[in-house]
Amino acid sequence: MAYFQLNKYSFRHLILGILLTAIFILTLLVALISSLVAFDEMKSGLYQQGIQLTRNLAQSSLKPLIDDMPSSAEVMLDTLLKMEQITKISIIHTSHIALIEHQEFDHIYHVFPSVTLKEPFNVIETPDSWYFTALVSTRHTPEHQANNTDALTTRAIGYINLALSKKGIKDSRRHIFMRNLMMSGIVGFALLFLMYLALRNLTRPLEKLSRLMEQGQRGDYPASANIYGTREIVEMSNTFNNMVHAIREREQNLSLTLDSIIDAVIATDANGLITRMNPVAESLTGWTLANARGASIKDIFPVMNITTREKIKNPLAKVLTQGETIYLSNHTTLISKDNTEFQITSSASPIRNKDNEILGMVLVFNNVSEQYQLRQAANKNKRDMQAVMDNSPAVIYVKDIN
Hints:
Layout: H1 2-60, H2 62-67, H3 70-80, E1 86-93, E2 98-103, E3 121-125, E4 129-140, E5 153-165, H4 167-217, H5 231-260, E6 264-269, E7 274-277, H6 279-285, H7 289-292, H8 297-300, E8 303-305, E9 311-312, H9 317-321, E10 326-335, E11 341-352, E12 358-367, H10 369-391
Helix pairs in contact: 1-4, 4-5
GO biological process, one term: regulation of DNA-templated transcription
Pfam families: HAMP, PAS, sCache_4
Transmembrane segments: 14-39, 176-199
């Protein structure tokens, strides 16, 4: 029975535990991966934005650098400084004199890359920031070659430095992860709930079948198991019904056989607990099978020695422990449930399977009370006759009819 209970109560819990663990791990993975993807997208977007801002600023700074007009550049800086990621912007002449410069924190140490006419744009990335540098240049024709359009040359007049901090996207990474974790968790637990409903619908027929099997283990076989579900479950139900039908027929045939035996018969399991009794055994012991089933043979079959009137303690123990066949003589008295005494003769043999393991025993006994009383009366008459002969003064001859 413990086998069925284990399967009944642990199967659904085991599957739910596996699903819960899988969904928990999957939720973490989805949240982590989606957060990393979102972080990379934000990082890539900010990087591209920094490139575009630096190049746009380089194009817009040409006239202020040529005219040396800081006020014109301040308008552009005011617009750019609305971005909290920008930690430094500077527009610098090639003479390293700043036309205009803004630094969010004085203690920030910026290392900007160098640029040349051949490489007018460059960027350096550190764990915390990007440092962009763009060359501001103009193209002109030397005076002595004013009519030669192919004589255009490029001249650097300054450069732009722009620093973008990664702090904002790093701070938002945790918030993105928590948001994605919460959303993944909601979806995951919704899936778990749907899986639980599906699992319950799947295991409910199995649990019903398990209860019917437990009922059959107690000897109370159901009429039929009307279980509906998947094709496999229906097939299991039909197989169970066929098995119960076959067992019922075998039980009925066995009961008819036992009931027709004139001797009293009791069968037990390997622990000495009653499993079967025929009507003769019920009559002699005073116990019905319904009341005796599952009780110990010691309680249902108490016996004593008729001569000493002492109870015989567990006379059938060797049958189950050692596999011996036991015979009790006609000096044995059975005490029934209502204390009626019957003189009996009995024998008990072990029930073995094909592997020679003891599964129980069969006890067969007969009521010999009448024969015992006749024999006792005959013995008494013989003793009385002998006493008369021994004490008579006359000579007495006893002669048979032949």
